[in-house]
Write a structure and sequence with these properties.
- By secondary structure, the protein is mainly alpha-helical.
- A two-stranded antiparallel ribbon has the order 1-2.
- The protein is elongated.
- The N and C termini lie far apart (106 Å).
- Pfam families: ESSS.
- It is found in: Mitochondrion inner membrane.
């Protein structure tokens, strides 16, 4: 087959495809090798698209796609990126703890108090169990 004949047949094929794209209701059915013997068939009904559910909604295609897209948007975009944002910009507790400790030490030094009081809690507010309540419990100090 010569190169010119191949190019000509490919041009005819492209022209045939363009006609089908312009008029989708017309389809050519050829049973012979002749290009001039072409029968056209019209579609009588609406072609139903095959739909496989994503698993979010089994009733309609639109609701299934909507719930799929919303689930992945909220699940990935907001949850993942929100948690990364929270971890990245969360305040560091160790800085606050050290700053408060130094402020408390400075305050106690200025007031002339011991840095750590042996009676940190007021002894009169502590309720200890009586000897009867303790019974035979070993107390290790």
């Amino acid at each position: 087959m010569s190169l010119a004949r191949v190019c000509l047949s490919s041009q005819k094929l492209l022209a045939h495809r363009n006609i089908l794209n312009i008029c989708p209701q017309l389809r050519s059915v050829s049973t012979t090798r002749k290009n001039s013997d072409v029968a056209s068939v019209e579609r009588t009904g609406e072609v139903k698209k095959i739909w496989v559910s994503y698993g979010f909604d089994t009733d309609t295609d639109k609701d299934d796609k909507l719930h799929t897209h919303l689930s992945f948007f909220f699940g990935i975009s907001l949850a993942l990126m929100g948690s990364i944002f929270f971890i990245a910009y969360a305040p560091s507790d160790s800085d606050w703890i050290h700053r408060e400790a130094y402020l408390e030490l400075r305050r106690r030094e200025q007031e002339g108090l011991p840095l750590v009081d042996k009676n940190y809690l007021d002894v009169s507010k502590i309720e200890l169990p009586s000897d009867e309540e303790l019974g035979d419990t070993d107390i290790i100090i």
